[in-house]
Write a structure and sequence with these properties.
This protein is an all-alpha fold. The chain is 64% helix and 0% strand.
């Protein structure tokens, strides 16, 4: 019986898939190299050959989460209305989290979590959001520090998505909470002149 292959793309993809699920659903310390290899149907040598160990595999999972979220947010079409772009970006963020629940959990709550900061890189997931906020501030729709506005909106989005993934929000209640919360955050940063236009009818009425 031949030895299992330890350095091909198929084995690497299996390891990444298993690692993504395990890091999202188990305590990190319980996810050993042996457990990862067993779940992927390969040898422990594959983890070291392909990723130089557990930490390298964690970085690969995190990097895929970062690039995936950035790709989806960057793909949101821009318009002349910065406020509508912010709403569209919020929708895309939520959709990505719902479609990639394990990657989302790893990125924002698991191994090597992403932490928003004042330093926004070229492929930072929040870059499209920051760009839209910059435009809204320049257009005097929102007022305040761009980073603070971005963090406050991200905190709201993260809370909503986390509750939805946990099953605490679903169906119509999730839709209502999402729309009303995003609008409330935007109103909180709105200039006096823009504030009236940001008030939407109560969705419950």
């Amino acid at each position: 019986m031949g030895r299992p292959r330890t350095n091909d793309a198929e084995v690497g993809e299996r390891l990444v898939g298993c690692a993504t699920e395990m890091f999202a659903t188990r305590p990190q310390e319980s996810v050993t190299v042996r457990a990862l290899a067993t779940a992927a149907g390969t040898s422990t040598a594959a983890v070291y050959t392909l990723f130089k160990g557990k930490d390298g595999l964690i970085r690969e999972v995190r990097d895929r989460a970062v690039s995936g979220l950035f790709r989806d947010l960057a793909a949101v079409p821009g318009s002349e209305a910065a406020l509508e772009d912010l709403r569209a970006l919020a929708v895309a963020y939520r959709q990505w989290g719902r479609e990639h629940r394990h990657l989302y959990t790893v990125l924002f709550g698991g191994a090597q979590s992403f932490v928003p900061s004042a330093q926004v890189g070229e492929r930072d997931p929040v870059r499209p959001l920051v760009a839209a906020i910059d435009r809204a501030v320049a257009d005097r729709i929102l007022a305040g520090d761009t980073t603070l506005i971005a963090v406050s909106l991200w905190v709201a989005l993260h809370g909503l998505v986390t509750l939805e993934l946990a099953g605490s929000l679903d169906g119509a209640s999730a839709e209502t909470a999402f729309r009303s919360t995003v609008d409330a955050v935007l109103r909180g940063w709105a200039t006096p002149a823009a504030f009236p236009a940001l008030r939407r009818p109560d969705p419950a009425r």
